[in-house]
Structure formats: structure tokens, C-alpha cells
Amino acid sequence: MHCYENAKGLMAAGHEVHVLTSRHGVTREELGNTVTRSLFLQSDSQYYRPLHFFTGRHREHKHNIYTLRTLVKKIEPDVIVFWGMWNLSKAIPLEAESLGIPVAYWIGDLWPGSPDLDTIYWLTNANHFWSKPLKRLASKIALMWIKEKDYVDNLRFENIAFGSQFLLDSLIEHGFRFEQPSIIYCGINLELFWRDVDWNQRYVQRSHRSDIKLIYVGAISEQKGILTLIRSIFFLNQRRSGQVKLTIVGTGSSLEEMKVRSLISQMSLEGLVKIVGYRPNRDLPRFLVKHDALVFPSIIEEGFGRVAAEAMAAGLAVIGSGTGGSAEIIEHEVTGLRFQPGDPINLARQIGFLMDSPSLFVQISAAGQRYVGSLFGLHRMIAEMEQFLLETCAST
Questions:
Q1: pLDDT tens digits for range 157-181
Q2: Domain spans, the chain
Q3: Interatomic CA distance for residues 274 and 338, integer angstroms
Q4: What is the DSSP letter of 244?
Q5: What is the pTM of this model?
Q6: What is the arrangement of strands in the sheet containing 19-22, beginning at the earlier edge strand?
């Protein structure tokens, strides 16, 4: 989404932009005027294919490199920008750095310091006893091949910007060194999410209500803290029967969804917790405005926490775990409330605190909206990206 929004914004500013991306989600290669869907992913998004690592990876690697070279030769760009590297080989940016054209990176997650899917799979033990000897042997060969092509150690990252201070600090702790890194915060579409709120009226409304409507937006995954959130709803409704309701917007793997639905059933929360599935970003505002607060319960360290900023823009109170870059958005009792990651009782306490204090509710909601409006607008991000890319071209 960020890539699309920024590409569109840069084109609106008069720049020519061509996006090279993977063929994920399409049945075959697509060659368009502004978008080329041709790159092979490292692995199937649902299931890893170990045999394919040995039989097809080399061919796909050659195709990716050939596609990059051919497209660069065709369009003669002033700068090559790497935006997201989900499930893509780090050989691609390494090849780009060898082409004699300025290369810039916007880092929205920790991919430079994270092992790729191949490494993760071959370092994992086999699931079945009978397959362990075979995988042990195959892993030695695979990991040796991966080590010989350790692309990240050779990437220069000369022109680099980060989506949060957390991402920069984390990669420095990981051993990376950057000469002049920039911070360009993730931007959200304020025109889509912003809602003018009469805060005095909101205070009066909260003063006459004992219930609260919560919303969670994101992947249905244990790592995202969804089970922590559901358990907190159970604890709250033991004391506040029927007063705390939750809407879950998102999807996950069949296994993760089964875990969530099973927990909801075990805790008899079917009438209080509703799963509505995936909704496109353009439809989120109408879901958000029907709720009082968004819960951002992630256990893992998020690069930023975009949905928390979108909820703040819509005038919701936000309660979050404060992991990773989300701590740069959610300041406890200032722009939101924080709880200990993975602790449902602590989360329940913060939700209850919010329910019992209309003044705090209005205070953090209003402050959160002001904060997001001043720092995280999409137009600001596009303008900063444009300046960053112009400086990259000028300094090379």
C-alpha cells in the first residue's frame, strides 16, 4: 500500500515512476507501462518447497536478475528505489548496486538484518523422525550454498531512509553502519481517515456510557497478540458482563483462525467477539468510526504501526503494547495507553481504566489525533521521499 501511494504521489508531482514487483497474486507475468509483475518470490507464501530450492531456484534467480537489467536498460532511471523486500532475494539489490545508477532504500521492516525464508527453513528441524537424516544432509548443502551468496554482507546501503527510529536503531544494534541515514515516517491518508470530532460532545457521550466497542485490525496471528486481546475481553466481561465488545478485521492462516475461533468458543464470547474478515484500506474508516477504541496488541516488534495512526486520525482512543516502532506513536497516557505485551490482565486493566475515565478517554483521543495530523500525513511522506530521492541523485 505504501509503495502504491508514494508512487502515485511522485507521479502526481511530475516524476516518471515504474514499479518492478513480484508476480504474487497473478497467474503469469504482467508487463505494463508503469508496473512490471515478473519477479519470482523465494518461496510460496503458504508452503515452502524444499525440492524447488535445488531444482528451480537457480533458474528463477537468473530470471530476476535478467528482468532487472532489461528494465533498467529500457527505461534508464535516474535512481533505483528499493521499497519492500518481502520474500524476495537480496541478490536483486546487490545487482542493482552494480549497475552504476544511484540506489536508494526506504526500510519499513527489519529485512536487512533478518534471515531469508530459505535460511529459516534449512535451519529448522524436520517434523518427522524418518525425514530427519535426509533433511540434515540437504540442509548442509543448502546452507553452504546460501552462505556463499551472503548478499547482505555486500550491500552498501549508501542512500537509506527508515520508516521509524526503531528500525534504524535496531539495525545499528544488529551491526549495520550507515553514513547519513534519514527518518521518513510512514504516512497515512489523512483525507481518507480524518474525522472532525466535537470533543466536548464526545466527553458527554462517554460520561453516559458504561460500555465500550473495541476494534482490532490486522493479521489473525498469535504473534500479533490477538489471543492476548481475546483473553482480556474474557477477564473484563467477568466483571462487566456484556459491556465490552470486540470486532476483528483481518484474516490469517487456517490454523491461526482456528486457534482464535476455538478460544472464542472456549470462553463463550461468541456474542461479544465478531470476526468480519479482510477489508480493503478504503473501507476501514467506516469500520473505525463505529468503535470507541482500537487495540494494537502485537507481541512482535512492529516496524511502525500504521493502523494505530489511522485509528488516531479517525478520533479513536488507542491501546497498544508499544512494541517496536509503535512506541513512537503511542505514548502512555498522552496519545494512548500502553500495556505489557502478551499480558491479558494488564491489557484488561488499561481497557477498564479507559472505560471508567471519560476525561482520559477524550484527552488521549484528541492528543493522538493532533499528533498523527502533525507528523504522519501521506503528503508529508511523499514530499520527504521526493527530497530524499533528489538528494540521492545529486550526491552520486
A1: 999 999 999 999 999 999 999 999 9
A2: 2-187+378-395, 190-375
A3: 24
A4: E
A5: 0.91
A6: 19-22, 35-39, 30-31
